[in-house]
Specification:
Elements lengths: L1 H13 L9 H20 L7 H18 L8 H17 L2 H13 L32 H11 L7 H14 L11 H17 L3 H17 E2 L4 E2 L21 H17 L7 H18 L22 H15 L5 H19 L29 H22 L1
Helix pairs in contact: 1-2, 3-4, 3-14, 4-5, 4-6, 4-14, 5-6, 6-7, 6-8, 8-9, 8-10, 10-11, 10-12, 12-13, 12-14
């Protein structure tokens, strides 16, 4: 009904007046035709790439990254976030060298995150040393280890996921529930738990998943805005932008939005908390739709562009992935959110993506919107490239689902 009224008004305004005096049937045909044309246009968003085009983009971006950077780096959160994108790129392209790159990285790290074997020393606050085994930034690597294992699932390959199971099962045996005290942790670890549930069938993974998520939700989620603060230090009104607004960090919300999507992939339809995860995912989608900049990106401070002016790619790529995943899986309405994706995809491929395949305008490692200056076309990173690969891979799936 809305579409009919909209295009009736449109036709009345823009069609020559002589058509307004014609019989109603002819006028209605014009209106209905306009609806079909517009519906077809919206259904084809994004408008300017075929599936093969997007695969070519993925290959160009990923080959540049892998050809210029060794796989043998540590398993901390930022290279691990890249590998979550790399495995999706492998999934849609079948390029064996992509799988081998992640395999070499996993082998280099002995299929571990933080490497301490003394459980009495295991910690979960912020830390970059081998004792911080229970800190989520050292657990995101398990997502890729599990994905590699599932590509060749057999008893002799159980070593690939042995450490992931050891760490997460120990963590779940503790009475602590505040493991995810910062927004990023939801991307780092929620999908680990649903992936391990799918392999083991152990319901404790899903019970503890919700327990940890509920703590994070109560600490950081602003239900009025439909967005997450980065951590307790940034909750309004304790912290505001310089203009006095709520300061929602783009990449922080990108971690959550993409993390919810990745979690829902393996969460059973019968899980009693699935509806709540989806409700928050949809609320975030609506808030993000309204916060998108005209150029297609999202500001580093989502509701206050002046807090940190300029383009930003990492949050934008994670949001694009989340929107596409939601559309592809029937959780988000395509007619509402495809125009959002069309703009963000145009930004990602025409502004962020450089001619040589480098993904630019990525805010460097940090924790807040206004932390960096001079974020430009050559400002890149592993985690931001991984986010771009996630979005592009989901774009391939969208195009195949709708055009083939």
């Amino acid at each position: 009904m809305f579409c009919y009224r909209f295009f009736t008004i449109f036709a009345t305004i823009f069609l020559p007046k002589k058509y307004h005096t014609m019989n109603n049937s002819f006028f209605y045909i014009l209106v209905v035709g306009a609806i079909f044309i517009a519906t077809g246009i919206f259904a084809q968003a994004p408008f300017n790439h075929t599936g093969e085009d997007v695969v070519d983009i993925i290959v160009k971006v990923n080959k540049l990254w892998q050809d210029t950077r060794p796989a043998q780096v540590n398993a901390f959160w930022h290279p691990a976030a890249y590998h979550t994108g790399n495995m999706e790129a492998y999934s849609v392209t079948g390029r064996e060298e992509f799988r081998e790159y992640s395999l070499a990285w996993a082998q280099h790290n002995y299929w571990k995150g933080a490497k301490s074997d003394v459980r009495a020393n295991w910690l979960y606050s912020y830390g970059e040393t081998d004792d911080y085994v229970l800190f989520g930034d050292w657990q995101i690597c398990f997502q890729t280890y599990i994905d590699l294992y599932l590509l060749d699932k057999k008893p002799e390959n159980e070593y690939m996921i042995a450490r992931a199971k050891e760490v997460m099962e120990y963590q779940m045996s503790t009475p602590i529930n505040d493991y995810w005290w910062w927004a990023d942790g939801l991307y780092m670890v929620m999908p680990v738990m649903t992936k391990l549930y799918k392999i083991t069938g152990n319901e404790l993974y899903l019970q503890k998943l919700y327990e940890y998520f509920a703590y994070a939700r109560d600490l950081m989620y602003d239900s009025e805005a439909g967005l997450f603060f980065r951590d307790a230090r940034y909750v309004y009104p304790r912290h505001t932008t310089r203009s006095g607004l709520k300061d929602f960090w783009s990449r922080g919300n990108g971690w959550v939005f993409a993390g919810l999507a990745k979690t829902l992939i393996d969460l059973p339809e019968t899980n009693p908390h699935r509806g709540e995860y989806i409700q928050i995912f949809r609320a975030m989608a609506n808030a993000l739709k309204n916060a998108q900049q005209p150029e297609g990106f999202w500001a580093r401070s989502l509701l206050d562009l002046e807090q940190a002016p300029g383009n930003e790619t990492s949050g934008t790529a994670f949001f694009t992935y989340g929107f596409l995943w939601g559309i592809n899986n029937g959780i988000l309405e395509s007619n509402v959110y495809l125009p959002v994706v069309a703009k963000s995809w145009q930004y990602l491929t025409e502004t962020a993506l450089q001619p040589d395949g480098l993904v630019g305008y990525i805010q460097p490692i940090g924790e807040r919107a206004d932390q960096h200056r001079n974020v430009g076309p050559t400002t890149t990173s592993d985690f931001g490239t991984g986010a771009f690969l996630l979005a592009a891979s989901e774009m391939v799936r969208y195009i195949k689902m709708n055009n083939e």
